[in-house]
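Hypothesis: this fold can be encoded by more than one sequence.
Test: take the structure tokens below, design a sequence, compare later.
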């Protein structure tokens, strides 16, 4: 397991191939838990995760070149890409995380929304207004610092996908079993 003041990863299983320029970690593990303090509501727990992580070093700080992964998250298949760029002004680095799924329960999807100043009202509104449904062909993209402290970095979150059989509660009106194509861009939510 790996631990730092910015988070932790436990359950890693696989092989490490090292060269003087870069290291390649082939992960194939039945269980992996990733804790990103302050960024998400709860740790990410993956089952049957496989990935090939390309580690390097930039200015004597760890970097991850664009690396792909797939695994189960709360009974749903997720696929994605992760990149970590060292930040010369702090030790955490800037994370780029892209996740896609063909079918993801609305509560499971909301757990993947980061806790950012830009998203807190949209995330809160979605939690209060949605009572059922699933996201299909959903994409979630986060770019920002690992530690969610963005004084020396910028941050962005976007999502899009089909929200199927949704139940929305708006003021005193309930709308059941509707399909919406949704787009979230930091503070804005658009459903068509």
């Amino acid at each position: 397991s790996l631990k730092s003041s910015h988070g932790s990863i436990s359950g890693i299983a696989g092989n490490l191939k090292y060269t003087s320029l870069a290291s390649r970690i082939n992960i194939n593990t039945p269980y992996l838990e990733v804790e990103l303090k302050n960024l998400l509501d709860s740790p990410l727990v993956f089952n049957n995760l496989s990935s090939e992580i390309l580690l390097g070093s930039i200015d004597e700080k760890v970097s991850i070149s664009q690396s792909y992964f797939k695994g189960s998250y709360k009974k749903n298949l997720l696929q994605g890409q992760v990149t970590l760029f060292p930040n010369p002004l702090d030790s955490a680095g800037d994370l780029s995380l892209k996740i896609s799924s063909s079918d993801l329960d609305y509560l499971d999807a909301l757990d993947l929304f980061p806790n950012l100043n830009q998203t807190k009202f949209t995330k809160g509104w979605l939690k209060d207004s949605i009572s059922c449904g699933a996201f299909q062909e959903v994409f979630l993209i986060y770019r920002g610092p690992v530690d969610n402290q963005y004084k020396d970095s910028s941050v962005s979150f976007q999502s899009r996908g089909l929200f199927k059989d949704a139940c929305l509660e708006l003021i005193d009106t309930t709308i059941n079993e509707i399909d919406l194509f949704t787009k979230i861009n930091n503070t804005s939510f658009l459903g068509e």
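The two ends are 43 Å apart (CA to CA). DSSP finds two helices and 13 strands in the chain.
Hypothesis status: open.
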